[in-house]
Amino acid sequence: MFNRSSTIPLAERTVGVLERKEGACADGYNLMSVSTETYLFDADGRVVNQWHSDRNVFCSYLFPNGNLLRDGSDTLTCTAFRTGGASGFVEEVTWTGERVWAFCHDDCHQFLSHHDMEILPNGNILMMSWERKTKEECLAAGRRPELIPDGEVWDNLVIELKPDRAKGTAEIVWKW
Length: 176
Known about the structure:
four-stranded antiparallel beta sheet, mainly beta, globular, 1 helix
């Protein structure tokens, strides 16, 4: 079996698309982020589009119009949350990489988005965020002292963002 973009048989490849199975990707495309680059590949492994970011990107999704939703690491300026999955920055960019809107918490030392997000049917964005709670806040809320070994707790929040494309921002409409 040969790939249309190469004369090297798939069985002999060591890089790129090594195997193609029916149903392996939706509509023949795969989206992958590596460091500051996000790639859209077709089923044969050819790059259809590439987006560059000034931040490390952990997850990204395509809007139906072809725009890209991506997070980005803000841990250089937000040093309170230095751990895996910490992002802090969310933005939508066009097919050509122009920013449509962006969001980060006002106080990134108190709140920081992490791990994943979801585009909702209404166009809003659902995302996870940590909220730092001090030992004193935790004790006042009834937490047992032995369950605060690091002197703070990172509470999980689910946040719904409503993008304002005209202003280039997004606002929180719900927090759970």
